[in-house]
Amino acid sequence: MNSRLQQFLSAENLTQSQFADSIGVARASISHILAGRNKPGFEFVESLAKRYPALNLEWFITGKGKMYKTVPDAVENHLPDLFDDSPLPEPVYPDREAFIESSAIDKQTKTPNNERTITKVLLFYSDGSFEEFTNK
């Protein structure tokens, strides 16, 4: 599990100290887990799941599956927090005609097998943190 924790820290671009502070545990406990001296307890895993909901806990605990949950599952958990029932405003384009023309060119160059798909979603939180979800 210590190697998976290290992989997660690398993927999130976090230091041991930043990670410990983010989940509310002693900094030394992260060092002990990474060194293999201790194993994470329930409270550690619970804090991890709350702070990083996109993390696949099955992967973290057993090594099975992918590090992150699928993008739709992870994003769906945040939808009530992100959106209200207000209608979205109509987009404003500085040069609407140029935009429409460039969109038409994009559509002409795509083949049926070359459809665009979502590859990355970024969620930004009011505390300055963010999460990145990739669809590989």
Architecture overview:
The protein has 136 residues and is mostly helical. The protein has a domain at 1-64: 434 Repressor (Amino-terminal Domain), CATH 1.10.260.40. Helix content is 50%, strand content 7%. The protein contains eight helices and two strands. A hairpin with a 5-residue loop joins strand 1 (120-124) and strand 2. The model has no long low-confidence stretch (mean pLDDT 75).
Q: What class would the helix/strand composition place it in?
A: mainly alpha
Strand content: 5-15%
For the sheet with most strands, the description reads: 2 strands, antiparallel
Q: Which strands sit side by side, in order, in the main sheet?
A: 1-2
CATH topology of the domain at 1-64: 434 Repressor (Amino-terminal Domain)
Unreliable stretches: none
Give a quick set of tags describing it:
elongated, 136 residues, 434 Repressor (Amino-terminal Domain), two-stranded antiparallel ribbon, mainly alpha, single chain, 50% helix, 2 strands
Question: What are the SSEs and their pairings?
Answer:
Layout: H1 2-12, H2 16-23, H3 27-35, H4 42-51, H5 57-62, H6 71-76, H7 79-82, H8 96-109, E1 120-124, E2 130-134
Antiparallel strand pairs: 1-2
Helix pairs in contact: 2-3
Summarize the structure.
The protein is built from 8 helices and 2 strands, in the order H-H-H-H-H-H-H-H-E-E.
